[in-house]
Write a structure and sequence with these properties.
Helices cover 23% and strands 30% of the residues. By secondary structure, it is an alpha+beta fold.
Length: 290
């Protein structure tokens, strides 16, 4: 594995001789705009392995994306290689349809300590809840970013991540889903503790999420990528493109349903992904990703 090859993959041309917050932020932003959050392997007959070299080969050399356990595992290697103090953490993702957090840890994120301050670095959540900058680990303080206002709340050693969303303008409302995005202001994202984790602790969950019949990742094919001014996401056959803060503190949401013959071209043109095996889109879960 070669850090310079990784930098080429994410089009990062800045300096990396000083492990400071500015460098961390710059590398992080390049990563989330170059590496999609995606679970396409599940839907084209491939397994997702928690092996760092396998993940490196997939994301860096094959120019694919990955889910949290791939993206953040790779990012942890990058940051450690550059001299950062990195700890793996585990979180439980909030599911609004159930108004509950997951029963078990199902998301990998990173804690980075810089100048006696702790930051959460999460390059693997994807969709519209993807942070664009490392977040300082402080409770109750709004941390505005381009996607919206994020904040942590801490209670008895448990940390909660929330995002305050803008209103959304959906010109072609007829193809939108009916989960009332316009009415939702503050959305819980996940909870976590500061207990250090090892990648081995995620192995069983990694297997479960790609095989369980009721897993979100089995019932939805997902590919999302952060852009310079928003995100684009392909979920099943539905292509959603969001421009943050388009006007009057509103996000522009454009939605289009693709035909089967458009999928391969869209993955290549919108996400720079070319798959080795036949991809079968799916979207049979009622759970919302927005």
């Amino acid at each position: 594995m070669d850090i310079k090859e990784y930098f080429t993959r994410i089009s990062y041309r800045g300096s990396y001789d000083k492990p400071d917050l500015a460098t961390l932020t710059d590398i992080f932003q390049h990563h989330v705009r170059a590496v999609p959050f995606e679970n396409l392997s599940i839907h084209c007959g491939e397994s997702i392995e928690l092996d760092l070299e396998v993940t490196y080969n997939k994301i860096v050399r094959k120019k694919r994306g990955g889910w949290c356990m791939e993206n953040n595992h790779l990012l942890s290697w990058v940051l450690k290689t550059l001299g950062y103090d990195v700890t793996l953490l585990g979180s439980k993702v909030y599911v609004p349809e159930y108004d509950a957090y997951a029963d078990e840890i199902d998301h990998l994120l990173l804690k980075v300590v810089l100048d006696d301050k702790s930051y959460i670095v999460d390059g693997g959540f994807g969709m519209a809840y993807q942070m664009w900058q490392p977040m300082e680990l402080i409770s109750g303080t709004d941390q505005p970013q381009t996607p919206g206002v994020f904040r942590f709340l801490e209670e008895s050693g448990v940390w909660y991540l929330e995002k305050v969303k803008r209103k959304q303008w959906v010109p072609n409302q007829s193809v939108s889903t009916c989960h009332n995005v316009e009415k939702e202001v503050c959305r819980r994202v996940y909870l976590f503790t500061l207990q250090p984790r090892d990648i081995e602790e995620f192995r069983s969950r990694n297997a479960h999420l790609q095989t369980a019949p009721d897993s979100l990742f089995v019932t939805k094919s997902i590919c999302s990528l952060q852009t310079a001014d928003g995100i684009r996401a392909l979920v099943g056959w539905k292509l959603t493109e969001i421009k943050y803060n388009y006007k009057d503190n509103m996000d522009l949401v454009e939605i289009r349903i693709l035909a089967d013959e458009e999928i391969e071209k869209t993955l290549k043109e919108k996400f720079s992904i070319t798959l080795d095996k036949k991809f079968v889109p799916i979207n049979i879960s009622r759970l919302s990703l927005f």
